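Title: Prediction job returns without error message
Component: structure pipeline
Severity: low
Priority: P3
Assignee: unassigned

Description:
Job completed but the reporter wants confirmation the result is attached to the right record. Sequence as submitted:
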Amino acid sequence: MTGSPMAMPLRIMHRWRQRMSGVELSILFCVTAVALLVVRHAPAVPVVSGALPGVSVGVWSAAALTLLHVALSLMTVVVISLLVSGAACQWPRFRAFLIPALSVARAVPGLGLIGICAAVFPASVTIVLVAASSMIWRIVTAVLDAEDTLPPALDEVATGLRMTGWQRFWRLQIPVAVPLTTFRAMQAMPAFWVRLLAAEGLMMLMSHRTDRGCGAIVLHAMLDHHPLRIVEISLLILLLILLVDQAVMRPVLGWAQRYRPEGPLEERPRPQSWLLTLWRRTKPMLWLSGTLGEALAWIGNWRIGRARCILPGQDVASREFPSAILPIISLLLLVYAIYHAGLLRLVPSDLVESILTLSHVCETLVLCILIWVPLGLLISERKPALRNLCRSAVAACGLFPAVLLYPLCRELGLNSAVVLLFLGAHWLVGIVVLDAAKAIPSGLRQVAAGLRLRGFLLWRRLLLPAIAPELCGGLLTAVVPVWNAVMVAEAFVPSDSGLGATLLSEVLGGALGAQILALMLLTLLSMLLDRLILQPLAVNAAQKYTL
């Protein structure tokens, strides 16, 4: 099963070819420096008082408010993603800057943005922006990936018809990108719920009001030590998650299959939705769909911009930036900003805490692999019905925000940050292992059965090498919710150690400069883990073991 780089699938090469670049570091350092220079004169204002606010809303009112936040967040994702990706497709220089900027945005722990956004925006806007940040970079990246894989024949047709930049983007690139964007949106839903509920809870502490949604109510019950109320709100949140999944995400995922040129994947069943089936069998809904389709087609025919005579692949790439000089200049600017903000005294302690946080994340990933690789391979050897049932159960459990289980873990004495982070990340690793094991060609399994491979020899020669590329690549996705929950998980540890716990205390204390510095270090840690460990593992496994 060994091979050369030429045997690596193009999708793997395109997904994992990027390494840590000087442009990415320069963007991170420059944005941090500018933010520190802007807020260096802002005083540290405490935002948490000693007494908890009283509960001012009912449970169902909080559920309705959370649903409103979900709807506004998803609309924000759609609008911002269309604007950013459209601008990137229209202006090549902006696209050259956007690609490394998206890599930085992917590494930013979303909960760390709460304190910064709350200093500028109202509480409801802050909740919406923090929740939407988990999905925007995924959608924009999916649109850009779809543009890179656009068939040349479609480009020639668009050029021959003298389509403008807007027409080409709306009528050509968006339909091609629909399947990938919906799939990425489904992948982002676990992190979306974690950020949304955590943002509602933290905004309750910062604004001293409980009318912020289910997250505020459940955090209030945690601090008041009301276990029955925690269970009640958790069940209501589970109901909301199922409602959004069945009424929004599943129908959109099933509808997106019509835009897949090669049809649904053969190894996996086509996504189905009972609501989408009902919609297609109802005449008023079909009329509404037709009217909406005509309106979108009318919008797509607007001749905005000028006709394009060259293919977008011929635009300027990342040649403008001398990657060796920019990081040095941006690092000097960052040191200057830290000095003038009076934060040099915090750098040594934050660096020590960052090493501890990195160890928590790495131990979590190792624990997930040690548990799910043997468990997933054992499940893959069972009957197909049992495999599909286990996979559906794991996917359903992965949607539930694990932060709601943290108080129970504290009551049971499971106060390790690794255990708390494991609760939120292991479901994604389980899905990756089950999908990778299911995708093993049946011919290889028949050959192994004919050669009577059993036990350790079967795992060593077939199963482990076969799932290695998908497993190593899946870790790139599985690590994202770990960084999202690191603030809350480390705060539940009695020792209150780690950079995530430090950042949370600074958010609740209102120290903007210290928040920005800690958030930059967390982002840098995420980028280093991704670029120096996970991506090389994925590329090496793809080169050696992909058929």
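Comment from assignee: result matches the submitted record. The radius of gyration is 24 Å.
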